[in-house]
Amino acid sequence: MREEKYYLSLFLVLILITSSCFTVCVSSKESTNFTNFKNNSDDFYFVQITDTHLIYEKNDDGCSKRRFTAVLDQVTSFENKPKFIVITGDLVEFGGSDPLGAKNYETFVSCLYEKDGELYADSGLTIPVYTTPGNHDYIWETNLVNYHNYVDKKHESVDDRYKLSVGDISLFFMDSGPNYILEPWDWADVKGAGLFDEDIDWLENQFNSLTTKYNIVLMHHPAVNSRNNLGEMTNVIARNRERFVDLCVEYDIDFVLAGHTHNSVIYDSSENKNYNNFPLNCNDYPTLFVQTDDCKQGVHYRNISFIDGDLFIEKTK
Asked: Which end of the chain has fewer CB atoms < 10 Å from its terminal CB, N or C?
């Protein structure tokens, strides 16, 4: 009798896991694109996806791949196509440099299209995909060997920081580092190692020569988040957090786009988070620190729209 109960329980657990995976993959198709373009040839939008956590298909029955493919199919199916897609870290469940991490990245890139070292979301190669690494892309290592071998083959020599300009918008991609382990009491807060002094110097040099109207920083870990019972900010960058926040505010950067927390919330530098009146016109707000929900436990994405000369942050879909 005990053995029968064990197998019955195991059977029920397997059903729950399978149905959860199926539900997540299918429910994403119910999303709707609310981006409303005017008759302006300069209007465009891009899509942020984050925390895809791809796993080698044989190790999760292809569930993570189906989730990622579902959101890609969704955002590339609209009549108004996104200009590009950004993925802000934790592309795979674990990356590093070992063979299994390589398999995870093989699964990730199998969902995309590649030409001349660039990744695209569509077979027509019209929607480029830009990435920045997260802590799971390191996962207890200090290198991104597999990430560079499979995903980003161009930015290793510049410490995974780079600038992209599209129209009147500049985007600054930063590597917020692996898990921060120097202080054991911070392990539970899942902080990222953060930005080195040379990263901050590079950003400041870039900000000093800004020519675009709108400017966005993208990285995996947020720089502003909630605090625990001890008053410590959790899940943020450990190194140079305050200096980075001050720099973004000083240069009136429009917003910092992040993931990592598997949550959808927006803060300002004073830790206020009452920013729920979407879409948010960046001209009406101070520098915002934006977190977008994950593509691991659900299928989420966020549109950022440039419409009639204004930049809007849309609600996570």
From this structure: N
* Beta-strand pair 162-166/44-49: unpaired
What global pTM score does this model have? Answer: 0.88
Q: Averaged over 121-141, what is the pLDDT?
A: 94
CA distance readout (Å), 69 to 65, 73, 111, 120, 310: 6, 6, 6, 13, 31
What is the CB neighbour count within 10 angstroms for residue 275?
A: 17
Q: Which of 251, 170, 279 is nearest to 217 (CA)?
A: 170
Domains annotated on the chain, with CATH: 37-313 (3.60.21.10)
191: phi then psi, degrees, rounded to nearest 5? -80, 155
**What is the edge-to-edge ordering of all strands in the sheet holding 44-49?**
113-115, 118-120, 128-132, 85-88, 44-49, 302-307, 310-313, 280-281
Long-range contact set of residues 72-75: C-beta below 8 Å, sequence gap at least 24? 72/111, 72/112, 72/121, 73/29, 74/28, 74/29, 74/31, 74/299, 74/301, 75/33, 75/47, 75/49, 75/121, 75/301
Q: Is 182 helix (H, G, I), strand (E, B) or coil?
A: coil
Q: Give 61-84 pLDDT, tens digit per residue.
A: 999 999 999 999 999 999 999 999
Helices assigned H by DSSP within the chain:
2-27, 57-60, 63-75, 99-109, 135-138, 145-150, 197-208, 241-250
263 phi/psi in degrees, rounded to 5: -150, 155
Query: Rounded CA gap, 316 and 272, in Å?
Result: 19
DSSP state of 234: P
Instruction: Say what the pLDDT of residue 188 is.
Output: 59
User: CA 115, 117, 120: angle at the middle one, nearest 5?
Assistant: 55
What tens digit of pLDDT does each residue of 150-193 get? Answer: 999 888 888 899 999 999 999 999 999 999 876 655 555 678 99
